[in-house]
Queue: 3 jobs
Job 1
Amino acid sequence: MVNIQAIVFDLGGVLIDWNPRYLYRKLLKSDAEIEYFLNNICTPEWNAQQDAGRPFHEAAAILKMQHPQYAGLIDAYVQRWEETLGDADWETVGILREVKQMGVPVYALTNWSAETFPVARKKFEFLNWFAGILVSGEVKLKKPDPAIFRLLLEKYQLDATRTIYIDDIKENIVAAQPLGFRTIHFLNAAPLRAALREFGFNLK
């Protein structure tokens, strides 16, 4: 093993499937309506502000003033948020279990609202396996800001050069690299397993 001290996992898109379309398929009649709503009303950029710490009630109030005809659908994003969660990626959860059983400390760094993260923690027991989880909405910083990576290192006393960081978003991987992290761009479980083997992990 190449002197690895810890492994840090992203959550959404790596270990957990999240997609607001799961909810809006129940509320809107066509894919076109869903795509319009998620690209023009409750957009990824709007959601990202909650990941950065903005309260959902404030975010919803702003949108409802701008788009009163969509008030019910906007409220649903908040009130029925649990329905935007898909399942875990159980193959990747299996990899998490294997490296943890090897005695390697595992951590998580996630862009996630502080209000909704407890819902995921309740749903997915494996979130209790981590030695620590840094949630963007709680610290009011989010990836790819290098400051959140520095906070992770400081909070958990990690050496970036001895830490593997795994994320499905290339922009976040690029942001972590100048700080010294060893990185793996996540595509799915199979190449992740192969990449960890290259680091010296004797995975099944």
Job 2
Amino acid sequence: MAEKIKYVNSTQEFDDILGKEKLVLVDFWATWCAPCRMIAPVIEKLSEQYDGKITVAKVDVDQQQELSIRYGIQSIPTVILFKDGKIAAKEIGVKPLASFTKMVDSHIA
């Protein structure tokens, strides 16, 4: 299931994804973060549910500190929906699947 999720390994890779894809849902997380592990199945479900409609990516805040700073990530998990490379919506903390589907559905043209 998780093979649909792109794990970002560099700021260049992140910028490339934002530049190529219309809608990108990004989960800012860390391996030590229990709430991040709690929403991981939700993020996987979203990647399945919206396969072909949005790109789902994960950014490990410990490995990609520059991206965390760039987007002002102060609490994790933080999930940001980018539309055309710009922030369209943001959710912080553990939320149910319905919160994220509402966020995505409101931006799919």
Job 3
Amino acid sequence: MSAWYYLAVVFREPMLILLVALGTCAGVYVGAIPGLSGTMAVSLLVSFTFGWETHTALAVMIGVFVGAVFGGSRSAILLNIPGAPAAVATSLDGYKLAQQGKAGQAMGISTTQSVIGTLLGVVVLATCAPLVAKMAMNFHSVDYLMLAIMGLMMVGSLCARSVKFGLIAGAMGIFLGCVGVDAQTAVKRFTFGIVYLNSGVDYVVAMIGLFGASEALIQLSDMSTNPVKQKVDKIIPSWSESVKHLPLTIRSAVIGVLVGALPGAGGDIAALLSYDQAKRGAKNPEVPFGEGNVEGIIAPETANNAAIGGAFIPMLTMGIPGDAVTAVIISALTIHGLRPGPNLITNTPDLFWLIVSCLFLASIFLLLFGLTGIKVFTKIVEVPKAILMPIIMILSVIGAYAIRNSVFDIFWMFAFGIIGYFLKRYNYPIAPIVLGIILTTLFETNYRRGVMLEGSIPGMLASIFTSPISIVLFLLIVILSVTQTGWYKNWKVSRDEKLFARKNKV
């Protein structure tokens, strides 16, 4: 039977459409609450839906997944508290726009770009799943290691002030990522005899403290400023703006799908890479990145939602989860007697096309729920500080505790809040700290794996030049190293000044 027959199955069952809509709506609001991630929501759904029919259970889970990835941008834009790590890059420019009274515009852009990213990811999933899966399988430990190195180098670009300050903040994140019992050797690192540090520092707790609690402290220290009145007359981007940013949208979607298809990478790294390429590709931007540039929202929001379709590719074709949520969905399918892998699409094509249909429907409902709720959400920014800031602190406490049901995580959150307060006071960036914690595990795991596979460090380094993917990634690292150094930037400025002077003489 044709693919169109299977695609039409979901439309012949109105209950599935309703469940996708309910799941998407719930996911948007769950994702907007710091600490309540899509992974947590889908995990809870597994226990509720294990007795349901497979199709209905999947419809709800997929809706929640898509909605939660997008929902993280809401709190990132309005409160400078990313609802999920994938929205960290979005907060850099989104919150600045909200401070300028353009929260409606920022959320409109994030909504439309999230929808476009999801749709492009679905198209790749439906048409090129085996090809992308084969490409992802060619990634080896050394390739993941270089991907982590690229991410660690890119954290410097997240600082509008100076690359140096971004790298310092990223180094702090790497140090915090090493805290805890080593997973391979069981050696305690930087625990100082404190039992609660054995499990390490959760990057979501760090994110809530650095963004949420620190922002509340900053705002409470200056109660004289009044809330900014928001303009909500312009929500949907104009056609001309969409066409203007179409190349950036496509590049970000490609990054999102490819990174999402890499097991263990996910939308967090995809959003970081896409934000960095947007910043590097912008020539003489009207608004600097980090000060309210709309491209700083377009790139990460397109990429992290496109990564959803990418994450389903290795799950459905090889039985390997692309991220944490697809790992939970694999367990749900196993409970229902299905085994994701190479034979899943062949033996149960209806299930594959059901997932594609639900992802498509979720993107449509995402547009509906995302745009209709903007005027309500913008009122949050206009709430007086004396009321809003205590609410933010309460949400931060709830979010930190909900991750591992640990009171100690609340103390961690407050500690990060105080650290973030002083970092902001001295104009140090805080986003690289969170991303440094996230990337440390990817770096450390694949470094050790590469050394064990090749037998030595020189052998691992030599393996870089044995595959085209490794060579390309190595060249990209070299280019990043050169372009981020001060002498290169000084040379570039000097060259531009000489060219300008030469033209004026003519």
